[in-house]
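Quick check before the chapter quiz. The format below is the same one you will see on the exam, so make sure you can read both the input and the output lines.
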Amino acid sequence: MADEFEPDEFEPDGAEADDPGPDERGRGEARPVPAAPPVVRPGSVQPDSPPASPLPESFPDRFAPVESGPSAPVIISRIAARLAPADAAMPGRALVFSYRDGTAVHLSAPPRARLGGFGGPAYEWRFEVDTTLRSDTFVASVPSRTDLARFVVTVQAEWSVTDPVRVVKRGLADGARLVRTRLLDAARSVGHGYRIEQISELETALAARLGGGPQEYDEGVTVHRCYVTADPDDRSRAKLERLDEARVRRQLSDEEVSALRSSVRSSSDLFLHYLAQDRHRVGELIADMRRHEEIKEERVIDLFRQAVDSNIMHPAEINEMLGRLLGPITGVFQPGGRTDLFGTHEPEAAPPAERPAIPVQAEPEDGDDEDGDDEDIMPEDLRKRAEDGVEGWRPMPWDS
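Here is the expected output.
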């Protein structure tokens, strides 16, 4: 009589069933499906192994995705149908029986043969499939709008086998690998539309794409929920930090320049500002400012010389203008003088010239001017000044 399998021979964690050996009649033997060996992928962290070394900084090796750990197979065991125990499936398990032609059916318990063992269904194999809810976390590098900047996307998925017949027909061994491939392919298609700094927008789009509802796959697996987070990779994060620091420094610099412009109103303010920064450079600062004054004076004189040579202005017309322009320069270091080197202050206007008083004609006494005619007064006598309007003259700076 054939040995029978006890239910405890199939461990809940998917371990192999013990080989019962051939029965007394030698009609067959149980063939448990060997468990898949642990898959060691690049960058993975095994439970009993030290953490993997960081990825190199060279391109494109540093963008290699970080794989999740191996997952238990979804098909727990496969044995001959005639040797299968008569017990029903445990919770979280599904029994699938297949014919010789490959047709498979899902049964909650093995079918009972008729009296004498004849007339029962001619099943060839019995498969036990894990239908429990699983939760796996997948981490991978996803390209952004530019391939040089990449996102690190973390997807936590809850999935299970919802059609064990399809799983058996397709011979699906690693359901986690299937789920990971489908989810990360969708994440890559979404990540191409966002820049590296658009983290929140990418997470919103991924949540709508992957977490909008259950996702059923043709292989008999359904993803029930997804939780997605995104971060820039190490290289992009360092670049964003540098850009943020540069932005802050530029903002502070603009504020300092604005404050300096509002505080420096004259050359004296600028001199005091430099003096406050380094008190030991007083002589050097004074020499620099004097040199600046000399250069400005030379430029002003050269400009007026060209104007006179071109007959644009007359020498008599530029005396007052030279006084206005060179006055601030000569009075830079005078306490009561003008201190503006840059034209920010309007020079004081020259006082208006006093008009000569018109002499009052004395009234004639009785007996004088018998004819009654007043003496003629010429306009030159009233103005008391030259015809060209110039009251004083001094030589030009370049004539001396």
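If your answer matched, good. The chain has three domains: 1-36+73-131, 59-70+133-237, 246-352.
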